[in-house]
Design a protein that fits this description.
Helix content: over 70%
Shape: globular
Structural class: mainly alpha
Number of strands: 2
Order of helices and strands: HHHHHEEHHHHHHHHHHHHH
Strand order of the largest sheet: 1-2
Number of helices: 18
Largest sheet: 2 strands, antiparallel
Strand content: under 5%
Oligomer: single chain
Radius of gyration: 24 Å
Length: 570
C-alpha cells in the first residue's frame, strides 16, 4: 500500500478544509441573514450546550484509532489493525447511541434550565443523532488516517458539507416559508397570533433553527453512509497475503483498555476546549446586562426592531458568536489539519524512536502552521470591518456589534492556529494529560477575564474577545514549549516564528493601504467586495515574496521540488 507523506496528507486535508469552509460559509451566511442576531443567539446557544457532549464522545476517536493503527502498521501487525477497527466500532458506536438518546431525553431540561429558551428543545432534538453518526464516521476516518490515507476523510467531509448546505438551508427556508404562508392565511403561525409579518418571522425563529440543524444531522448521515460504502468498494490496502504473514492479535480486553486510555484524555481536553463556548454562553448575557445597567445607552446606535434591555444581550451574543467567532474559527480549523495529517507519521517515528524523523515532522508542522496563521490573523485584525461587510453586507447592526471584537480576535487566530496542531502532536507522543492541564488553566483565565471585562461599559462584548485572546495566548505558548521539551526537538524561533511575523505585518499593511487608497482615489466606482479581494491578493503576493527573500527553508524546498521534477523527466 502506498502511504501518503506528511506534506501530501496535509495538502489533501487542507484542500478539503478550504472546500468545506467555502461551502460552510455558503450555508452559514444565508442562515445568518435569515435568523439575524436574535436567531443566531438560539443557534449558538444550542450548539454551546451540545458540543461538550459531542466532544466527550466523538473527539478522541479519530486520533486514538489513527495512532493505534499507525503504531501497529509500523510493526506490520496487519491482522491486529483490522481487529482494532472492529473493537472500536462496537465500543464507540454504542457510546454514541447512548449519548444521542440521552440528549433527546434531556432536551427539555437543557433548553429551559441551561439555555433559558424552551423553544430550543427542537434544535437539541434535531442535533442529537449527530452524536451517534459522528462516532461511526470518526472510527472510519481514524482508521484510514492511521493508514496514511487522508482521501476518505477529505471526500466524506466534502460530501457531508454539500448536503449540509442543501438540507440545512432547504429545511430552514421551507419552515420560514410555511410560517409566512400561515400568517397570511390565518394571522398567526405555530400557535401564536402575530400582528405583523415581522412578528411571524420572529415567532418562527426557534423552529427555523431546529429545522436547519436537523438538516445538518441528515447531512452527517449521508457522509457516514458514503465513507462506509467507499471503504467496502476501495478497501484499505491490506491484502490477504499481508494478513497471512501476521497471525497474532491482541486480546479484546487489552485493545479496549488502550482505546479508553488514549481516548479519554483527548476527549477531556476537547470538552474543556468547548467549554470556552459554554463560558461565553453562561457569562456574556448576564455580564452585558450589568454593563447596560451602568449605561442604558450603550447600544443605542442599534436599529434592530423590538430590541429591549431584556432581549439586547441575546442579540449582541448572537451577533458576536454568529459573525465574529465564526470567522475567528476558520483559520484554526485549517491548521488543525496539519496536526491530523502528522499524527500517523509521528506515531510511527515515535514508536521506532526515529529522532531525525520526529525533528523533521514537528519543525515542518510548526513552520507551515505559523506561515498560515500569522498573516491570516493580522489580516483579520486590519480588515475586520471589510471582511464582515463582504460576508454579511445586509446585517448592519450585527456588523456594528462584531467589528471591534473581530479585530481583537485576530491575535487569537495566530495563537489558536499554532496551538491546535501542537495539542495533536502532544497527544500522539504520550503527553495526553498535559493538554488537559493547559486547557483548564486557560479556561479559568477565560472565565475570570469575562467576568471582569464584559461588565465594563467601555469594553462590553469586546471583553469576551480580549479574554479569548489571553486564554489562547496561554495555550499557544505553553503547548509549544511543552511539545519541544517533551519531544526533544530543537527549532529556530527566528526561522519559524519571527520571519513569518515580519512578512505578515508587510502583508497586512499592504492589503490595508491598497484598500484605503483604492477606495478613495480610484477614478471610477468599484464594488467594495472586489476591492477587498484585490487587496488580499496583493497582500498575499507581498507576503510570499518577502517570505521567500527572508527564509532559507522555502528556497531549498522549492529548488529541490523542481530539480526532482526535472530529474524525473530525463
Amino acid at each position: 500500500m502506498k502511504k501518503q507523506s506528511f506534506l501530501k496528507g496535509s495538502a489533501i486535508l487542507m484542500g478539503m478544509v478550504i472546500i468545506t469552509k467555502i461551502l460552510g460559509l455558503m450555508y452559514k451566511i444565508p442562515l445568518t441573514h435569515m435568523l439575524g442576531g436574535t436567531g443566531m443567539g438560539y443557534f449558538s446557544s444550542a450548539y454551546a450546550v451540545f458540543t461538550p457532549i459531542f466532544a466527550i464522545v466523538v473527539s478522541g476517536i479519530p486520533s486514538t484509532i489513527s495512532r493505534m493503527v499507525a503504531e501497529n502498521y509500523a510493526f506490520e501487525r496487519y491482522r491486529n489493525i483490522r481487529k482494532i477497527k472492529r473493537v472500536s466500532m462496537l465500543l464507540f458506536s454504542a457510546l454514541g447511541l447512548a449519548a444521542s438518546l440521552l440528549v433527546i431525553a434531556l432536551s427539555g431540561l437543557l433548553s429551559s434550565g441551561v439555555i433559558h429558551e424552551p423553544s430550543a428543545v427542537w434544535s437539541l432534538i434535531g442535533v442529537a443523532p449527530s452524536v451517534f453518526l459522528g462516532t461511526v464516521m470518526s472510527v472510519e476516518r481514524g482508521y484510514y488516517e492511521g493508514l496514511r490515507n487522508m482521501i476518505p476523510t477529505a471526500v466524506s467531509e466534502i460530501v457531508e458539507t454539500v448536503f449540509k448546505l442543501i438540507f440545512g438551508l432547504g429545511f430552514a427556508y421551507a419552515v420560514m416559508n410555511c410560517a409566512e404562508n400561515s400568517f397570511y392565511q390565518t394571522g398567526g403561525c405555530f400557535g401564536r397570533f402575530c400582528r405583523t409579518i415581522d412578528d411571524a418571522r420572529a415567532a418562527a425563529l426557534p423552529f427555523v433553527t431546529g429545522a436547519s440543524i436537523l438538516g445538518v444531522s441528515l447531512a452527517t448521515a449521508i457522509g457516514c453512509l458514503y465513507i462506509i460504502i467507499s471503504g467496502k468498494i476501495h478497501g484499505d490496502g491490506i491484502t490477504r497475503r499481508m494478513l497471512e504473514q501476521d497471525r497474532s492479535t491482541d486480546r479484546t480486553a487489552a485493545l479496549l483498555k488502550r482505546l479508553i486510555k488514549y481516548a479519554v484524555p483527548i476527549a477531556v481536553a476537547s470538552v474543556i476546549t468547548t467549554l470556552t463556548n459554554m463560558i461565553d454562553l453562561i457569562t456574556i448575557n448576564p455580564c452585558l446586562s450589568k454593563a447596560l445597567e451602568k449605561n442604558e445607552m450603550l447600544f443605542s446606535s442599534l436599529t434592530e426592531n423590538d430590541l429591549t434591555l431584556r432581549t439586547l444581550p441575546n442579540f449582541v451574543y448572537g451577533s458576536y458568536t454568529g459573525l465574529a467567532v465564526t470567522i475567528f474559527g476558520l483559520v484554526p480549523t485549517l491548521t488543525a489539519m496539519f496536526g491530523k495529517s502528522i499524527l500517523p507519521n509521528l506515531a510511527e517515528s515515535w514508536a521506532k524512536k526515529d529522532h531525525s524523523c520526529i525533528q523533521k515532522n514537528l519543525s515542518g508542522m510548526l513552520f507551515i502552521t505559523s506561515v498560515i496563521a500569522v498573516p491570516s490573523g493580522i489580516g483579520i485584525s486590519l480588515l475586520s470591518k471589510e471582511i464582515l461587510e463582504f460576508l454579511y453586507g445586509g446585517r448592519v447592526d450585527e456588523i456594528a456589534v462584531s467589528v471591534v471584537p473581530l479585530a481583537i480576535l485576530g491575535a487569537g487566530v495566530i495563537f489558536m492556529g499554532i496551538s491546535i496542531p501542537c495539542f495533536s502532536a502532544l497527544q500522539t507522543i504520550g503527553s495526553a494529560r498535559l493538554p488537559v492541564i493547559i486547557m483548564l488553566a486557560s479556561g479559568a483565565a477565560k472565565l475570570i477575564f469575562n467576568i471582569i471585562l464584559i461588565p465594563v461599559p467601555e469594553l462590553n462584548i469586546c471583553g469576551a474577545a480580549i479574554s479569548t485572546v489571553i486564554s489562547q495566548g496561554i495555550i499557544c505558548i505553553w503547548s509549544a514549549a511543552a511539545l519541544l521539551k517533551t519531544s526533544g526537538v530543537k527549532i529556530s524561533a527566528k526561522e519559524i516564528f519571527v520571519k513569518p511575523l515580519f512578512s505578515g505585518v508587510l502583508c497586512g499593511a499592504t492589503a490595508r493601504l491598497l484598500y484605503d487608497v483604492t477606495s478613495v482615489y480610484l477614478p471610477f466606482d468599484l464594488n467594495h467586495r472586489v476591492i477587498l479581494l484585490i487587496s488580499i491578493f496583493a497582500g498575499s503576493i507581498m507576503y510570499f515574496f518577502s517570505l521567500y527573500l527572508l527564509c532559507v527553508l522555502p528556497k531549498k524546498q522549492i529548488k529541490s521540488f523542481f530539480y526532482k521534477k526535472i530529474y524525473k523527466t530525463y
